[in-house]
Amino acid sequence: MKRQSSIIIAILFAAALPLPAQLVASHASTTATPQPLTANVTLPQPAGKPVVRVNGAVLTDRDLLREMYAIFPYARQHNGGVPKAMEEDIRRGAMKMMEFEELVYQEAVRRQLTVSPARMQKAESDFRKQFRSPDQYQALLNDEFHGSRTLLRAKIRRSLLIEDVLKSDVENKATVSLAETKAYYDKNPEQFRIAESYALQTISVMPPANASPAQLKEARKRADDALHQATSTKTYEDFGVLAEKISDDDWRVMMGDHKAVTVDQLPPAVLKALQALQPGQISGLIQVDQSYTIVRLNQHIPAGEQPFVTVKDALRQRLQRTKTDQLRATLDQKLRKDARIEEL
C-alpha cells in the first residue's frame, strides 16, 4: 500500500515519551493484518546504534524503529507493542525498506538531482507547522539532530530527493487508464463474483489454555461485563474503542474490525448470531469452545456480481498499486545489483 513520500504528522518513538512529529521515510508502508499470537512485545528504545551499512552509509536503530512503526502503525496506540509472532517479519521488512530508501537517495545524488531553495523553504515551513509549540519543535531538533537546523534541513532535502526519484521511476509510470481497467474487468469476470459475507467487529473474552474452573468462572464474569458495556455503545467508533480496551482477540488493534468475512469462514455459532442481526446491532454472548465473543454487524453483503461502475475506482487503484509494486521491485533489484549492503 502506497504511502506518500513527504513530511507528515506522525509520532516519533525516539525516547521513552514520544514527540509529535518526524521526518517520514519515503517508501510504501504495509498495514499489517492481525495474526494469531500469544503476546505483544515492546520494541526497544533506539540508542543510535548502527544496524546496516549501505555503500558505506550507516543507518541506525532510530531509522529502523521508524520503519517498523510505519509497517505496523497500530503499535503507536499500544505503548510501542507489536505482536510477538510478527516482530521478526516486521523488523525484516523494515530493514529492507530502510535499505531501499537509502539506495534511492544515493541514486538521486548520482543523478545530480537538486532541490530548489523555494521548495526547501516550503518543506521546512510545513514541517515546523506540525508542532503545537516552539518547545516541541526544539525538543525534536535537540533529540534527533543535536540542535542543528543544518542537519534537519539535510534530512528534509534527502526526503525530497527520494520523492523525486520515486515519482519519476515509479509513480509517473504506474498510471492505469480507465480503458485498461475495463479491459481487465472484462477479462477476469470471476474476480468480481462475490460470496455472501458479513462485515463485523468483535470483542472476545478468552480464558487461558487449560483454564481451571475458577478461571472459567472469571472469564464468564468478564464476558457478562463486556456484553453490558458493548450493548451501551451506539456507533462503530464506540464499539471499536471498547474493543481496543477490553478485547482479548488480536483484532482489538483494528478496533475489532474484521472487515468482510465470507460465510464459510465464520464459526456456525457466530454465523447464526449474525443472521439474526440488522446492521448496527450487537449480539449477545456467543460461546465458541471456552471463549466468549460479542459481534457487531456493520454490513451484510449478499452473493452476486459486482458491476463495473461499482468497482471501477477501487479496481483502478488496485491495478495501480500492483503496477507500483512491480516498478518498485524492479527499481529495488536494479539498485541492489551492484550495491554493498552489510547488516551490522
Number of strands: 13
Instruction: Tell me the CATH superfamily of the largest domain.
Output: Porin chaperone SurA, peptide-binding domain
Strand order of the largest sheet: 9-8-11-10
Measured as a percent range, the helix fraction is 40-55%
What is the second-level CATH architecture of the largest domain? Answer: Orthogonal Bundle
What is the CATH T-level topology of the largest domain?
Triger factor/SurA peptide-binding fold
Number of domains: 2
Beta fraction: 15-25%
Mean pLDDT: 86
Q: Which ranges are low-confidence, i.e. pLDDT below 50, for 5 or more consecutive residues?
A: 1-38
Broad structural category: alpha+beta
Structure annotation, total helices = 10
CATH class of the largest domain: Mainly Alpha
Plain-language structure description:
This protein is α+β, with helices and mostly antiparallel strands. Helix content is 45%, strand content 17%. It has a four-stranded antiparallel β-sheet with strand order 9-8-11-10, with helices on both faces. Helix 6 packs across helix 10. The longest helix is centred in the C-terminal third of the chain and has 29 residues.
